[in-house]
Every structure is written in structure tokens, then in C-alpha cells.
Amino acid sequence: MSSRRRGHSPSASTGRGQNPLAAYALSSHADLKPKSSTGVADWSKSLQRQMEFYRWLQSDEGAIAGGSTNSWAGRYATPPSGKSTFYGMYYDQQPVYHDPPSNQWFGFQAWSMERVAEYYQQTGDASAKAILDKWVKWALSKTTINPDGTYQIPSTLQWSGQPDTWNASSPGANKKLHVTVADYTNDVGVAAAYAKTLTYYGAKSGDAKAKSTAKALLDGMWDHHQDSLGIAVPETRTDYSRFNDRLYVPSGWTGKMPNGETIDSSSTFSSIRSFYKNDPAWSKIESYLKGGAAPVFTYHRFWAQADIALAMGSYAELLE
Fold this sequence. Notes:
By secondary structure, the protein is an alpha+beta fold. The chain folds into 2 domains: 4-231 and 300-319, Glycosyltransferase; 234-298, Irregular (Endo-1,4-beta-glucanase f, domain 3). It contains 8 helices and 12 strands. It has helices at 20-28, 39-57, 106-123, 126-141, 188-205, 208-224, 282-289, 302-319, and strands at residues 4-5, 10-13, 67-69, 85-86, 89-92, 144-145, 151-161, 177-185, 234-236, 255-256, 262-263, 296-298. It has a 5-stranded antiparallel beta sheet with strand order 1-2-3-5-4, with helices on one face. It has a 3-stranded antiparallel beta sheet with strand order 6-7-8, with helices on one face. Strands 9-12 form a two-stranded antiparallel ribbon. A hairpin with a 5-residue loop joins strand 10 (255-256) and strand 11 (262-263). The longest helix is centred in the first third of the chain and has 19 residues, at 39-57.
């Protein structure tokens, strides 16, 4: 299980920390088994619990919900009555961060299920296949491949309800845990991670639609979104409005940043980071902060470029 400190709040999420393939390798392959007295048993139990965790968090539609915490509200508060639990940990639909809710991004679905699909491709594990069967069916139903090869995949997810309290001997159907897709994207990094998930799943299951959609996503970004630096798409970034957000500094407290900016109760995110004004594209941000149009940027994020390369390599290795 993964944990993250939010204050003093250990919590677990599917999107960031679960890796059943690693747990499988560290508990099953001689060259990777830990030499500690309980290491192999610990990783074997971790694998079991991770698969249970995914099953517990799988919505009625098929997407995977947020996670759990053993410190409600980050201060070991008493959770609302009737809160669902997993081995004593409380369901939390946004276990990593709240602004915006951490599990609203489809990218966490793709990253996390990629690791489940890799594990399934190596082992054929029936529990992994059952989770993937449902997730892939849902994801494909929300994916559009246009006649010209462009594509749209989920972007923002909205959640309601909660899973049934976990019962390992008789898992619930989670009929009260639901997800809807609020909007869609052609983001290349997320599409690459999603394509990898479909590739590993399709290679083991033989699912024709999973395989053809993986190819369509990779072909679509290659044919439509290449430029001189890599593969990327323009993004309208309304989140730069947060540059004007006020910082919390107690009244009467003042100081100086290393660059000389004043820190006080009137400070904003950008007022203490004057170096941003030296960026050649600062004028776009400044105009937006003064009421102009939201800036449009084409970012070549390293993780996205790496995911694209790995997705194409995985497809070539497994399906060509």
C-alpha cells in the first residue's frame, strides 16, 4: 500500500502508489526477492491487498475511485457516520490533495491501471483480469476515435457515493459508487499511458477493440501532434489565474524572499516570485491576470514524451 503525509495523515490511493507488478516481482522472482526474514511474505501480502484495494474501489461503471485514510481530515477526526472502510481505513474520494480533488484526473486512472495490466500480462491473474475487463469496457465507451484519426479521451471525472465496506470473502457490487465524465481531452501523455494499458491488456486477453484503440491513439498523436520538439498539443491554461491567489501570512509578520520581494499578509503567489517576470512568455500570463484571454501554451513535458516512447515500444513489442 502507498502512504502519503497530509499533515500527519497516512492515506492510500490507487492513482499514485499501487504497483502490483512490483509486488509480484519482489515476492516471486528469485533474483529480486528481499533477503530480509519477512520481505517475501510482506510483498506477497502487499500484492494480495493491492488487488483487494482495486476491487474495493471499482465503481459500478468500472472506473477506480480515490483511496482510503486512517486519519480523517488529517487530524484523526471521527469520520461521518456510515463511512465505508477497508481493513479499518476510511474511504476518501480525494486522498492525495483537495484543490482540485485528486481523483478527478483521468491520468491517474491510466497510470494506475497500466501497472495492473502489466501484472496481468505477465501472470494472467484472474482477479486482475476481472478488474481490467470492467475498467477497459468503461474507458473504451468514453473514448472517441474520429474518422480523421484525431481522438478524445476522458479528462475530468466526477464522483458520487461510496463503495461497500470491504468484505474479502464476499465483495460488494458497489452499486452506490458512481463516476461520470465531465469533459474530454486529447492530452498526449495521458493518451500514451492509456494506450499502454490497452496494449498490455489486449496482448494477454486478445481483446480486439483494446488492441485497435491502442493503435489508434498512438497513430493519432503521431500523425496529428508532432512538432520540431516532440509530440504535444496546445493547452488553454485557465489555472494561471491562481497566480493572483493570496498567501496566508499572519498579520504583522513580514520578511524578504531571497530575490528581495516583500513577504506580508498582502503577498500573492506571483508577488514573491518576481523571477517569473523574466520569462519570455510572461506577457501572456500578465495579460490574463489583468482580465485578458487565458494563455495557450504547448508544453513538452518530459514524463509525457517518455510515456509516448514507452507506449510505442510496448505496442511494437507485444502487438506487432
